[in-house]
Design goal:
By secondary structure, this protein is α+β, with helices and mostly antiparallel strands. The protein is built from four helices and four strands, in the order βααββααβ. The chain has one domain: Alpha-Beta Plaits, CATH 3.30.70.100. Helix content is 33%, strand content 39%. The chain is globular.
Length: 88
């Protein structure tokens, strides 16, 4: 399992927050869980800490054009920045 941090802005935080179950459903094949955070200085900036079981599949889900409608519904704004832990 790999921990990934994803950051992006949303057009409306309340709308995005209401889409929690949709996110669980669409990402379920590639993740074990996620936690969501809201920036303290920008309420429309969110961070997800995701426990990923399949990185390639997660990328495919995020970039799948058929999921654009869900991004639009949840007011997700590009870019989506994803980061992984650096091992020393």
């Amino acid at each position: 399992m790999t921990t990934v941090v994803a950051r992006h802005k949303v057009g409306n935080f309340s709308t995005w927050k209401a889409g929690h179950q949709d996110r669980l459903d669409v990402f379920a094949p590639a993740i074990a869980s996620y936690q969501a955070f809201q920036d303290m200085d920008d309420p429309n900036s969110v961070v997800l800490v995701i426990e990923v079981t399949d990185l390639e599949l997660l990328g495919a889900i995020i970039n799948d054009p058929k999921n654009q409608g869900l991004k639009d519904k949840h007011t997700v704004l590009e870019p989506i920045t994803m980061s992984m832990k650096i091992d020393y």
